[in-house]
Every structure is written in C-alpha cells, then in structure tokens.
Amino acid sequence: MRSIKPKMRAGTSALATMLMLSSAGFMMQSCSTDELTGQPSWLGNSIYERLQEDGNFGYTLRLIDDLDQTAVLSQTGSKTLFVADDAAFNEFFKSNSWGVRRYEDLTNAQKKLLLNSAMINNAYLVELLSNVSGNPPEEGECMRRATAVSVYDSISRIYPADMPMTESWDKYRDHTNGIVLLRDNTTKPMIHFLPAYMNKKNITDDDLNILTNGGSTSTADAWVNGMKIVERDIACKNGYIHKVDGVMTSADNMAGIIGSHANMSLFSRLLNRFSAPYYDDDATKAYNRLYNNTDSVFVLKYFSPTRAENDPSGMPVEAMLSFDPGWNQYSVGSGVNYDAGAIIVPSNEALDFWWNHDGKVLQDMYKTWDNVPMTVLVKLMNIGMVNSFSETVPSKFQNIVDNTTKVSLGVQKADIDSCFMGCNGVVYLSNKVFTPADYSSVSFPALVNEQTMNIIYWAISNLNFEPYLNSMDSYYSFFIPTNDAMLTYVDPCSYGTSTQKLYKFYYDYEAKTVKAKIYRYDLSTNTIIDEKEMGTATSTMITNRLTDLLNNLIVIGNVEDGKTYYKTKAGSYLKVANSGKEGVMTVSGGLQVEQGSSVPIQTIYDQTVSGNGKSYIMDTAMPLTSRRSTYSILSNNEEYAKFFTLMRNSDLFTQKLSAKYTCADFNIKLFDAYNYTIYVPTNESIEKLHEQGLLPYWTDVEELTADYFGGDANLLKSAQKLLTDRINNFLRYHIQDNSVIIGGLDNSEVKYETFKINNANKRFFSLTVTSDDSRMQLVDQMNNVRNVVKKEGLYNNQGREYWIDSKTDQIYNASDVVVHLIDGTLLYGGEQLTPWKDEIDALITTSAKGRR
C-alpha cells in the first residue's frame, strides 16, 4: 500500500500549526494512552479514504459499504483494520471452506465475519498489540483481543442427523427442523503472534515454523489469525491499517477445528459425546429481536469444570473434560488477552492403530468406541488437553504431562503432523495416541467396571487417590472391593461402643455420588441387629471413612513375593494366603485376623506388563482394620501383665487429645498418624530387673514418704520424679517408630528409633532389628540380644488406635501398632544398671551437703 499524505487546502497550515501548539500540553498528559494504543494524535485521511486512494482494496470497500460501515470508517474514531488486497480476495474465492466462489455469493453473515473479524474497536500499532491495558501496561503479555464480531453475526441450526447420539441431545432428536444453536455465546477473539509476545514467552523460530506449518521461520514476523502482516502501522485519522497476505476470517475454536477436519473425525465424534445444548434465555430474546423470529436459542457447551458441571436438566455430570474446547474465550489466568489452551488430537489412523493394540483391552470389553462409557473415555480425551498454550509450544513439549501423575508424556516434534491455531488455543494433529496412566494403573479395573465397582472408583477419583495409584514409579498391590463388598463396612468410630455401626455404601446415579445407610451391628456375630436403618451418613462422614478405607487397601509392593504380612499405605498390615491364585487367595485385615476369618479374592487383574502392579477383587467383604488398642491388647493377656501395670500407671496412656478427640478406651499419647512396635518383656524378666533393684514399680513410688527424707517434702518430690522418670524411660525404650512383624518385610540389622531420647545428643536411642519369616531378634544399646517369643497369641498382635471427633463423628487420625512378647528387658544405658535405691541415697547425700 502506498503511504499517501493527506492533501491540505491553502491557508490551513498556519491554523494547523496553531492547533498543534495549543494541544501540546494535552498530548503530553495523554502519553500513557498513546503508549498503550498508539492512537495517532495528528490528523490524516480516514481508513475508508486511504483504501479508496490506494485502488487495490475494492472487495474490502464493498464489504464496508454493504454492511453500512462507510460512515463509521470515514469519520473520526478509533479503529484498527487488517486488510487483504483484491488479489488476495481473488485467491480466497478460488478455494475457501465456505465454498463461495465470488463476492456476490457471500451471505450477509459471511460478510460480517470477513469485516468484523478483521477489525478492532481501538487503534493499535503492531508493536503495541502485545500489550495488555494497565497502569503501566503489561508489555508482551497479549496474544488475543476482542474484535468487532458479534455472536449473532453467524448463527446456525443443527438438525437431528448431526446431533451427537447422547442422552442430552435425545430430547431434540424429533425436532425435524432442528434447533437454533450458538456454537458459543462468547465472541471469537483475534489471535496474534507478535514479536514482543513471542520474545516474552520464549517462543522460538522453530516453534513458529511448526505452529504455522512452515509459513514462518522467524519470530520477527507478525501473524494475525493465521495471516502474515506484510505492511504495518499505516496511520489514519481514525486509526491504523495493517495489510496482511491473505483474507482473514475468524479463527474457529478448537472444537470447531477438530470437527471440520476429516482426519480428526473420530476424535471429534468422541469429543461431541461430552457436549450438550443449553437453552439461553438472553440469547433467545436478542436473536428474535434481531431477526424477528420466535425460535428458542441454545448454546453448545462441553461438560467441564469451567463451563458445565451440570447437564441441561441441572443434574451433576459424571465425566468432564479438562476445559470446554468450544468456549471461544477460554483462557488461563486473568482474561481473554492472556494464555490459551492446546489439544493433541490423534488422527483417525492413530486412533484405529491404538484401538487394535495398546487399547485392545477397551475393544475387548466394549467392542465399539461408542460403547466405551464416558467415565472411561474421558481419561483418553483429557490426556491431550493442555491448559496452557505458551508453556507447551513445541520447544516446551516436555511440559505436557499426564493429568494425574504429572509425569511428562514424552511428546516429540516428530509426533505432530500439523498445527491449527484457533481462537482459544492450538490443535496439534498427532500421528500417535498417548495412553493415560489410568489405563495402565491398578485402579483400572475399578474404572472400567462401572456397574460393579463405581463406589470405590468414585472414592479414588474424588478423594485424590488417582495421582498416587497412577504413578508408574512404584509397584502396587491394590485390593478392590466391589459394590457388594462395600455393603459390609464396620465403622471404626463405633469400635469402642457396646453396639457397632455398619455402613452400607451405595452409588446414587442421579446425584452422581456415593451415599451410605447406617445400621446397628453386632460385631461378635457379624449380624445386623435391626434391619431398620439408623440414618444416612453425611458427605463428610463418607469421605472420611472412604479415605481411611482406601489407605488400608493399598500395598506398596508385590503381595505375591512369598511373605505373609504386607504393610498398607496407612501402616496397618494385611495377612495374605495362597497369593496369586484366583478363588483360593485370601486376605485378612486386623479385624479378620482377630476373628479368625478371611476375605476371598475372586479375580486378579495383572497390570504389570505396561502398568504398575496387580489388582485383587473382593466380592463378598473387605479387609478391615483392628478394633483393638494397645491398652486392649495388653490388658487382655496375662503374659503382658507386668508391662501393662507399668504402662497403665504411667502418663503414657490418655483418653483425650487436646480436649476435642476421644478414643475407645485409652490411647498412647506418644503416637501420631503412623505405625509403631511395642516390645513387651516377659513378666519374669521384668520381675528379675525389679528384684535386682534396677527397675522400680509404681508401688515403690507410692511407698516413698517424707519421713524417709527427714520430713523434706521437696526431697520427696525429687525422689518420686527420679523413680517416675526411670519407669517412663524404661517403657519409652520398648516403644519403637515403625511397625515390624514376623512374616513381613525382612530386616537385617536395621536400626529403628525408640521414644527414649538421649540427653547427650538429643537424638532418640535406637534398637537394632533382624527379622525374617520365622524369627525376630533385637539388640539394645547395651548389646543385649533379645528374641521375640513365638507363642500363639503373644507376637504379631495388631492394634489400631483411633482418635475420634465425637462432634462430627469423624476419624481424626489413627495409629497402627504391633505388639510382641520378648524374652528379656531392653536397656539403653549404663545408668539403668545403678540400683534406684542408690540413686535416692545419693540424692539425700547431695541434699545434706547442700545444707552445710
């Protein structure tokens, strides 16, 4: 385009000079506006006049005239117009997606799209298009901005034959004339790649080359809606003109792009299963007012957290996309000017290949793509949905991660055949399918068996267990209860009561959530006392119990490696028999071990080849944790009597935690939400230590009187504290962090910390443990060797201590413990070998010397 200077009449130059001088102060004050928009402050020809004078923009002028915009673009104002010359329009009419071959065949709606999508209602220099309004402006942050397009410039009608085959569309399938449908009720923004933005976001020349399918190899180029700016910043009195190398149309959104390409048709069909028409009252009124109709207008939306969490009837949606790909103004962050999204779309050929290879498990189960449930399919759809365009351009493909594990998918540039830039993000056409970790995870059986395992899968999905179970860095053994098994959950919050509670979990298909009915239950006979339900569990009670349950169903490791006991994620132990044999294998939680029962494993899913372990399906019941506290275990066994007496009278047992939480009987106050081991010396060994004068009993503390100390009450208190500390320190050294069990993980001289602190270095004294399937041996700090007594009922005793919030009836936390009888006492230091009476005598002597 020629830069034509405006002609001035004779005698006007002096006036112009005066006007410029008189306005100098104003120009200085408004420089912040000029900095953002670049709006010219000097007078020149209008945009319309410039186009007329050039002579190469006849088609654009016809658009302006036909749409009654001549006056707007001829007068003062503030516009930015991107224009293509007549030669570019001639090329456009040779081939375009509308099938229009000459100007005269353009509809009024198409004319509006051509003009309005190329026009911004403000004046911008190219270098300032990348700025976002602010004080000061945010430089290099803008990649999109609104145009003059209206959502009503182009509105369509969808007919029954084109409606997706889903329940949301069935309501309108008998509308032979179709329904009026807005593809979105937000306008399509202009998308531009400008040097300042690309530099700010570290987009490389190679990135731009890939994004433009070879159209540009330099980030010094400026691109708008897929067209290159070839002449920029042509100043007019009412704005700027920028010439582009082709006819610019509104960039479609990602859903529209996917739907319009033949090689993405299969993905598009699957994507549309997550769509629905939503009636829009405001759009209906506006449309009918504009076009003098009486139609109902609907808006196309895709189920997603950002746009449509409920279906058109208002019910919750079970499966949602990461975002709505049909939302024109989808953005990450503060608004439409900023970042957009991206979708990696496998080609039809890539999806077909995957369906017959890596995805064959779905094919075998569901036979056709259309039969794959949305809750299963959504994992595949979301794996390629990326919420940030700028952070995942080709040079940053390593940032594209699995939605749950956050591990890089390993996308390579060679995996991408071509790119399509939309108004809300980029579509990468891929020659391969990236399989979500969900399909290789031990949770996969719960995902695909939606009719029989949707209770536990709801818990996995909604309680944030997916990232954990989908991790491919670990091997898991996951015990999965079916919906029938979920009818047998005994509430641990009721363990300490005379009558227990049974939760019968069920899935509410209407509310798309898990609920539970509560019954009075007799744990001694495993029967419901009264078939009349006590009530229903609240949502917080359900999530609380299911979280605890799931943590006790997951084992990190292989339960088929020949051991008997396996520690769960929560810290409890599961007892496994006949491992790896379907129908014969059994598992027992602490409660089943106490009752002498077990839970059969009906089916085993092997996910080890491409996944992270095995899943064990339980149809009739589920392993439940122990109902016994340490207090209960010690008090109900005569062989533990001496140790229990010391514990009971110490300050280590408590009934309340911070005056808010209660327990079944007594809990050990040292414990937290972890797992522990308690070594109980035989009665004989404790008595021997007492007889040697090395370990006082509580009766010895009680028998101390002031008379023994010459009536000195302070000396009496010091002596009582001395004996109390001696007993408590003895007990603390027999309580160990980390639970160990015979038949569990082997230990070879492993040091474990106890609860007795070493005052010299402020670290905890340790015990050295060696154990295998048949024995357990301990070495204390004095090099005494002790062995676990393998007598039935005296070792491997599991317990669990719950802290219950009685006001909300929820588990606050739980501690797991294993109790073993050992053949001798454990000693941590030489001071324990000094008779306690000698220490008292020394106390008296020291006190007497102090009085002299």
- The portion of residues assigned to helices is 25-40%
Radius of gyration: 38 Å
Give the integer mean of the pLDDT values. Answer: 91
Please report which band the strand proportion falls in: under 5%, 5-15%, 15-25%, 25-35%, 35-45% or over 45%. 15-25%
Written description of the protein model:
- 27% of the residues lie in helices and 23% in strands.
- By secondary structure, it is an alpha+beta fold.
- It folds into four domains: 154 residues, FAS1 domain; 168 residues, no CATH class; 175 residues, FAS1 domain; 207 residues, Roll (FAS1 domain).
- A seven-stranded mixed beta sheet has the order 2-1-9-8-7-6-3. The protein has a six-stranded mixed beta sheet with strand order 29-30-37-38-31-32. Strands 17, 18, 19, 20 and 21 form a five-stranded antiparallel beta sheet that branches.
- α5 crosses α8, α12 packs across α13 and α27 runs antiparallel to α28.
- It is elongated and about 120 Å long.
